[in-house]
C-alpha cells in the first residue's frame, strides 16, 4: 500500500461555501467540490492483503460511484447530485473547470478565449474552438450557450434549475461568426462571471429528446427509467455506452472528440452506495478505484491492501456550528461568546480530522481556507480556548453557577441541544467532544441527532452541527449570512453585513472583493452567528496498476479521468 497524505493548501480567490442536500464522496451530508492546491506529500509502505487489480487490464477502468444518478442532467433542483456531475462532466463539456490550485481554468478544448470586453454594461465574450463539434457532427455554437442561460435563469420556470446564480442577471446571449463567438451581456455587474457556463449542453439533442420541448428533456428524458443512451449527444472525451439501472453506467471513448482523446477506452462506474463496501471491492479486484466517505475505519481498511494507493485531501467541505438566534438563550451574544471561548477547537481538530493528517488546521475564516493567498485569521480572542473568559462572559450577562455546576438565570438553566443528521460517526464524535468541553464551563448540552436535514429548515435546533461545501464562486455567501436568506439558518441579521455582501456581488476588482469578504468575516467573529471548526478529510483510492489519479477538492475525483491509464 502506498499513501499520499496531502494537505491541499487551497489558493482559491473565487472560493465560496454553499450547502447542497446530496451526498458525495467527501461526506454523507455534503455535495459538490471543485479543486485542491499545493501539496505536502508523505509516502509510506505497509503490508496487507493482496488485490487482483482491474477487471479488464489496459482498456477499462472501474471506479466506484457512491451515488446512482436520478437524472443524467444534475442541473435540476431535484437531481443536483455530485456523483452525476463527476460522471457526466466527461460527456457534456464546459467553458471552465476548477483546477488543482483552486483557480478557475479555461477549458481550451472548448473555448479559445474568455474575455471581459466591457464593464458598463458588463459584457463577456467567449470564442468557441472552430473544431468543437457534438458527437453527432453538429457544431457547438452560441445557441448551446444560450440554451444554458434560458434553462438556468428562472427558478420558477419549467426547467426547475438547481440554481440561477448569475444567469438571472444576463440580458442576452448572442452569436456571431457562424455561432463560434458568444457575446453575453448583463443587466448589472456580476462579479462571479468567470464561473458561468461551466457546463454546456446540446440544445438540439435536448429538443429531440423532449419531442420538441427541451424543458421536458431537461427534467425527464435523461432519468434512468426514460434513458436512451443514443440520445445523450456528447461534446466531451467520452460517450454514454450503456446504463444498467441499479448497477452501473459505462462510458466509452468518444472517437470523434475534437480535443485530446481519452487515454482509456472505457470507464465503468458501478453504484456502490455503501462506502464501507468499497475497500473490500478494491481488495477483491472488483474495482480499480473509488472516492468513499472518509471514515477512520475505512482508511484503515485501505491501508491494509497491498496494491492500493490513496490520497487524503482537505478540500472544500468544512464543519461548523450554527446558533439558532431565535432561541432566547443563544440570542445573548455573551452566551455565544462563552461557547466560542469554552470550546477547544484545536483539540477537536486533533481528535477528528487530525486522525487523517496532522497538517489540518483550525478554521478561523468562513470564506477562505488556510494556506490560501486570501486567508486571514480573523478569530481574534476566539482563536484559542479560554475557559475563564468563557465563564466571565456568562457572568457578565447575569448567569450564575448552580450547585451542580450548570449556570442559571431567572430560573432557567443554561441548557442547549446540539443537533446533526444521523447516522454520521464523525459528527457524533464531534458532538460528544463539544458536549464535554462546554459542560466544563457550565453548560448543559443534550445530544439531539435527527434522521434528516429537515431540522434546519424547520429551525428545530439550538446548535446545529453540519457542513458547507465550497465551490468556485463567492456570491453564495449572501445566501448564508444576508438577512432573511434561505440558507441563513441561524436567522442572523446585520445591516452592515447585508450591505458589504451586496457590494461584493457587484465589485469586479478581485482584490477589493476579497477585502470586502474579509470585512464580513471579521464582523461575523464579532457577532458569532456561526462558528467554523475544520475542513473535512476526503479519500481517493486506486489500485497501483492505474496511473494519473489525482485528488481535486473542487472538481471531484474524475476531473482528469481522460488521462487515466491502466496496465
TrEMBL record:
TM spans, by residue? none
Taking every annotated instance into account, which residue ranges of this chain make up the domain Solute-binding protein family?
109-484
Task: Cite the record's Acidic residues compositional bias ranges.
Answer: 28-52
One CC-aspect GO term: periplasmic space
One GO biological-process annotation of the entry reads: peptide transport
Domain of life of the organism in this record?
Answer: Bacteria
Spell out the molecular function terms from Gene Ontology.
peptide transmembrane transporter activity
| Alphabetically ordered keywords of this record | Signal
Recorded hits in SUPFAM superfamilies, A to Z, give: Periplasmic binding protein-like II
Q: Output this protein's name.
A: Solute-binding protein family 5 domain-containing protein
The organism of origin for this protein: Actinomarinicola tropica
Region (Disordered) residue spans: 28-58
- Annotated signal sequence is 1-21
Amino acid at each position: 500500500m502506498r499513501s499520499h497524505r496531502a494537505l491541499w493548501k487551497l489558493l482559491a480567490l473565487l472560493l465560496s461555501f454553499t450547502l447542497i442536500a446530496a451526498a458525495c464522496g467527501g461526506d454523507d451530508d455534503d455535495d459538490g467540490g471543485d479543486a485542491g492546491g499545493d501539496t505536502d506529500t508523505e509516502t509510506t509502505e505497509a503490508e496487507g492483503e493482496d488485490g487482483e487489480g482491474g477487471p479488464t487490464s489496459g482498456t477499462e477502468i472501474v471506479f466506484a460511484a457512491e451515488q446512482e444518478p436520478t437524472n443524467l442532467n444534475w442541473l435540476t433542483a431535484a437531481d443536483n447530485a455530485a456523483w452525476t456531475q463527476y460522471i457526466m462532466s466527461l460527456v457534456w463539456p464546459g467553458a471552465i473547470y476548477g483546477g488543482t490550485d483552486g483557480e478557475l481554468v479555461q477549458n481550451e478544448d472548448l473555448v479559445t478565449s474568455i474575455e471581459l470586453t466591457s464593464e458598463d454594461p458588463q459584457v463577456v465574450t467567449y470564442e468557441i474552438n472552430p473544431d468543437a463539434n457534438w458527437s453527432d457532427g453538429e457544431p457547438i455554437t452560441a445557441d448551446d450557450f444560450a440554451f444554458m442561460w434560458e434553462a438556468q435563469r428562472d427558478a420558477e420556470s419549467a426547467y426547475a434549475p438547481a440554481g440561477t446564480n448569475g444567469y438571472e442577471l444576463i440580458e442576452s446571449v448572442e452569436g456571431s461568426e457562424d455561432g463560434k463567438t458568444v457575446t453575453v451581456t448583463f443587466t448589472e455587474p456580476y462579479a462571479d462571471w468567470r464561473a458561468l457556463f461551466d457546463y454546456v449542453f446540446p440544445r438540439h439533442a435536448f429538443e429531440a429528446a423532449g419531442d420538441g420541448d427541451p424543458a421536458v428533456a431537461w427534467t425527464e428524458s435523461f432519468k434512468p427509467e426514460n434513458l436512451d443512451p443514443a440520445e445523450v449527444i456528447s461534446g466531451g472525451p467520452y460517450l454514454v455506452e450503456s446504463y444498467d439501472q441499479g448497477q452501473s453506467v459505462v462510458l466509452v471513448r468518444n472517437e470523434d472528440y475534437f480535443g485530446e482523446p481519452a487515454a482509456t477506452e472505457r470507464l465503468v462506474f458501478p453504484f456502490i452506495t455503501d462506502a464501507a463496501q468499497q475497500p473490500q471491492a478494491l481488495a477483491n479486484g472488483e474495482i480499480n478505484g473509488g472516492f468513499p466517505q472518509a471514515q477512520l475505519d475505512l482508511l484503515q481498511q485501505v491501508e491494509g491492501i497491498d496494491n492500493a494507493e490513496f490520497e487524503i485531501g482537505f478540500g472544500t467541505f468544512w464543519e461548523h456550528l450554527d446558533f439558532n438566534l431565535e432561541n432566547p438563550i443563544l440570542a445573548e451574544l455573551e452566551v455565544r461568546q462563552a461557547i466560542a471561548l469554552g470550546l477547544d477547537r484545536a483539540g477537536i481538530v486533533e481528535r477528528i480530522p487530525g486522525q487523517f493528517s496532522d497538517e489540518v488546521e483550525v478554521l478561523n475564516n468562513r470564506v477562505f481556507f488556510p494556506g490560501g493567498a486570501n486567508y486571514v485569521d480573523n478569530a481574534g480572542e476566539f482563536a484559542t480556548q479560554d475557559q475563564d473568559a468563557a465563564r466571565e462572559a456568562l457572568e457578565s450577562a447575569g448567569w450564575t453557577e448552580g450547585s451542580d455546576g450548570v449556570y442559571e438565570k431567572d430560573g432557567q438553566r443554561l441548557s442547549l441541544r446540539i443537533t446533526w443528521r444521523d447516522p454520521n460517526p464523525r459528527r457524533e464524535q464531534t458532538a460528544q467532544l463539544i458536549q464535554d468541553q462546554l459542560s466544563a464551563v457550565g453548560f448543559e448540552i443534550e445530544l439531539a441527532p435527527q434522521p434528516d436535514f429537515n431540522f434546519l429548515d424547520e429551525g428545530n435546533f439550538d446548535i446545529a452541527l453540519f457542513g458547507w461545501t465550497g465551490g468556485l464562486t463567492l456570491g453564495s455567501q449572501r445566501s448564508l449570512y444576508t438577512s432573511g436568506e434561505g440558507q441563513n439558518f441561524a436567522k442572523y441579521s446585520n445591516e452592515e453585513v447585508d450591505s458589504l455582501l451586496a457590494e461584493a456581488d457587484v465589485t469586479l476588482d478581485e482584490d477589493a472583493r476579497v477585502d470586502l469578504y474579509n470585512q464580513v468575516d471579521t464582523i461575523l467573529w464579532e457577532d458569532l452567528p456561526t462558528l467554523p471548526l475544520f475542513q473535512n478529510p476526503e479519500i481517493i483510492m486506486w489500485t497501483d496498476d492505474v496511473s494519473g489519479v489525482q485528488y481535486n477538492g473542487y472538481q471531484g475525483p474524475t476531473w482528469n479521468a481522460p488521462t487515466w491509464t491502466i496496465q
